[in-house]
Amino acid sequence: MGDVFPRGRVSVAGASTFGVGEMPGHSTIEMAGKAVQLALADAAINLAEVDGLFIALPDDLFAGLSLAQYLGLHPRFTDNNRAGGASFMSHLVTACMMLDAGYLDCAVIAYGANQRSSGGKLSTPARPDRWDAPYNPMYPLSFYALAAARHMHQYGTTREELASVAVAARLWANTNLEAFAKGPLSIEDVIASRLISSPIRARDCCLVTDGAAALVLTRTDRAKDGPRPLVPVLGAAAATWYNSVTQADDITITAAAESGPRAMAMAGLTPAQIDTVQLYDAFTINTILFLEDLGFCPKGEGGKFVASGAISPGGSLPVNTNGGGLSCCHPGMYGMFAMVEAVRQMRGNAANQIAGAKTALAHGNGGTLSAQATVIFGNAETV
Amino acid sequence: MSGPSADWDVALAEGRFLLQRPVGGGDTVFPPRAFAPGTGAELEWFEASGHGTVYSATWIQRKPPEPPYNVVLVDLAEGARMMGRVEGVTPETLQIGMAVKARIIAGESPMIVFDPVEQAHG
Question: How far apart, in whole angstroms, are the C-alpha atoms of residue A327 and residue A18?
């Protein structure tokens, strides 16, 4: 047994973002609360019907309790599982199982962060562990730099190939009203940007923005009667291999190589049947690693794949169609925004809508390439 | 009785770099554990040779005139991997795959650093 998932029996009834980019004067719980209000309005579901709360906030260890208080609810269950930017995909796994089992009737997943307005730096309570800390790595940046350096050494991935990920993200962002970073960006611009922790340069890094997002989940039989196009959850899997990526067997292979195939098996789909991919691009190397590990190209060929234009507008595999963490928004734990963009694609109302898309994969990354979680959404035709 | 991390600290302060392995054989363990990860097997301490190979490396930039410093991952000869720093190298001379040897810097917070190992020619 294991990996039994209620394929298609739980759906996204509501989805919303709030304050993407800059939203000064708001606390994190206010940001998250506003996103919940908007997502419930989107679903035409009353606040009082919510009986499950799933949340991670950057600055609140008891975020589930805080959200219950803020919303004025006595939920049957709260969960503030922290797996970094993969937290929300993990929340969705739990929520789907509990909804299908009848333990919950209406679950909300929420996130809010104000790191741009509150300081302008990545806001995280996480630190290197005591074995890594004496060497003073930048957290989390240097851990990704070590993966990128090894990927370049092992497979011949080039500086230009890494840069092409940032360029593709910017091209998508340029036609997304909600995206924070717009304007021309060339391979040369990325390579000329400030070196931070080699080989990672400033334009290889995700943005520092504010932003909140929320999803409302119900059983599909209820969501079918809602005001929005049906977005069933076809599969969802979380994989955790370690905390410090120092402990990886091969630093170029992440737990996405486990979460992706497990989620796709639940959905009954292969990578070739996924129409669009939304993944957590904290750094340009992430996109390459995850496309390889999720099975969209062979291991080691991610650099060539992204440089070919495959992931850009008009390419064969639309990736991060909102502009991603690199150019749309990155409030600190990006996973929610990958899921919201996947939901928009399935509803047919994304800013950069992929014509005819019936399946969307959303992938979250947490820690330092440590925790990976993959969710596959469909549309009404897939159930 | 202290835990394995504290025992490791005591040995390091005495100038010894310890690793662990399952009694009767198996994969080397680092950082220290109370039992073998994945199997739960009983562990024993042994002294590392200190030899290793650079598995990956990054140079962290600082505001000039402060020079950049490196952070590396080292594959130890006995099989475990650890974070570290290689001393006496530049961005041009520090290479993935280069041989290094551990050295303990004594002091209030002793720590392990690595030096390049001159490769025999011929």
Answer: 17
Rounded Cα gap, residues A128 and A139, in angstroms? 6
Please determine, looking at this structure, whether the domain spanning B49-122 carries the CATH number 2.40.50.840. Answer: yes
pLDDT tens for A76-129 read 999 999 999 999 999 999 999 999 999 999 999 999 999 999 977 776 778 999
Question: Are the CB atoms for A335 and A86 separated by under 8 Å?
Answer: yes
Instruction: Give residue A83's identity as a one-letter amino acid code.
Output: A
The pLDDT value recorded for residue A1 is 82
Those residues of chain A whose CB sits closer than 8 Å to some CB in chain B are 129-132, 134-138, 142, 145-147, 149-150, 153, 194-200, 244, 246-247, 251
Helical axes A28-43 vs A63-71, angle rounded to 10°: 60
Test A135 with B85 for CB contact under 8 angstroms. yes
Calculate what percentage of chain A has a pLDDT beyond 70.
Answer: 99
State yes or no: ipTM above 0.85.
Answer: yes
Q: Where are the domains of chain A?
A: 10-120+207-382
**Residues A238/A373, Cβ–Cβ less than 8 Å:** yes
Q: What is the pLDDT of residues B18-68, one digit of tens each?
A: 999 999 999 999 999 999 999 999 999 999 999 999 999 999 999 999 999
Q: Is B31 in Cβ contact with A136 (below 8 Å)?
A: no
CATH topology of domain A10-120+207-382: Peroxisomal Thiolase; Chain A, domain 1 (3.40.47)
For residue B48, give the amino acid letter. Answer: A
